[in-house]
Specification:
By secondary structure, the protein is mainly α. The protein has five helices and no strands. The protein is elongated and about 40 Å long.
């Protein structure tokens, strides 16, 4: 996980953040998303605006899943990663 955070820290453009986030999300196995309701399982990042929107969506889904499932560590990591990516995008937009 730390290596993925370091990649975000090293990014200097929105495109790099998007590519890193897309790569990280591609590692998610369907069983990692299983605690989420079906409405929250679609993960798609096409542009920088998708990252904060997806983070918000998954944070809501994680909050619901956390109360119903014990296996939510990967979801917590995903939400943390997307939060870090969102922060980096803000830094790049507003230097």
């Amino acid at each position: 996980m730390n290596a993925w955070f370091k990649e975000i820290d090293r990014a200097t453009t929105k495109a790099e953040v998007v590519a890193n986030a897309r790569d990280y999300c591609a590692l998610m196995h369907p069983r990692d998303l299983a605690p989420l309701s079906m409405d929250f399982r679609e993960i798609r990042i096409e542009s920088d605006s998708d990252i904060p929107r997806l983070r918000e969506k998954l944070a809501r889904g994680y909050a619901d899943a956390r109360s119903h499932a014990s296996e939510v560590e990967k979801l917590r990591d995903l939400v943390s990663y997307l939060a870090k990516a969102s922060e980096k995008l803000d830094e790049i937009r507003n230097p």
